[in-house]
Design goal:
The protein is mainly α and 345 residues long. Helix content is 58%, strand content 1%. The protein has 14 helices and two strands. Residues 230-259 are annotated as: Disordered.
Length: 345
Amino acid sequence: KAEPGHWVCAACVQHEDMAAHVGASRTPQEVMEHYVSMYIHGNLGKACIPDSIPNRVTDHTCPSGGPLSPSLTTPLPPLDISVAEQQQLGYMPLRDDYEIEYDQDAETLISGLSVNYDDDDVEIELKRAHVDMYVRKLKERQRRKNIARDYNLVPAFLGKDKREKEKALKRKITKEEKELRLKLRPLYQFMSCKEFDDLFENMHKEKMLRAKIRELQRYRRNGITKMEESAEYEAARHKRERRKENKNMAGSKRGKEEGRDGEFAAIENLPGFELLSDREKVLCSSLNLSPARYVTVKTIIIKDHLQKRQGIPSKSRLPSYLDKVLKKRILNFLTESGWISRDAS
């Protein structure tokens, strides 16, 4: 101790003594630098000081922010919210605590514990285990608070951070990315908010790079080896696509002008097509039924209906290709068209 209230390092005293021994040509700082460079970091130090020093103390604690890290119990600054919002959340700012916490009954593990002088070793270890369980629950409670604070869940619950998020977004989030964020929401507890945002930004960059690679490969397949040539190629490709679209639009317009015959391309060349009305053509096309078969079924149904109205008993002999669904559809059509009465159908 050199002066009252001041302590001097022993190494500094030694360097001062060595400087005094060398003479006034060297200061204590120069002596110390010479000693460190020559005897510690120099060849002599490399030869004498081993790389791995035995019996060195190893830090076995969890890294900061890990699942069981001691830093998880560090209290956070109180939330900056109004009194009404505090009451809505049941939040106590002076304690940074809530009326209802995660694992609300965690304190029951230690609330009934007491240390007695006549406790044996088993009872003591049991009480220590209870305390350890309680400390782990406290760490988990604080970890969840840190996650909520990191991801701004309280302002999101109160509806405060929507405008701030919209301002902070550099680009528009697509529907696929929103769905992916919902699927990866369980990762929130293992990653910080910045790490999670960086993950999505990197995924977006990867997607854009893959699209650019596919585009360059397409250019190469078409014989383009320079970026200057790609502009001319894209202009020609857009012209071709525009001509194709115009051609398709003209074809569809011409088809509309020609009428609805294009809808019956599957049956218009079959015999009996010219005997059908427009509604019957639509029915046969939807049922995938040939006009001749439809005319046969229609004739049998109308003939049976007329015989029943005249009181003549008749037994319907419908073709074998007519199942229940087809029969019901044709009967409903003939009834709606007025060919047969509704009670007969």
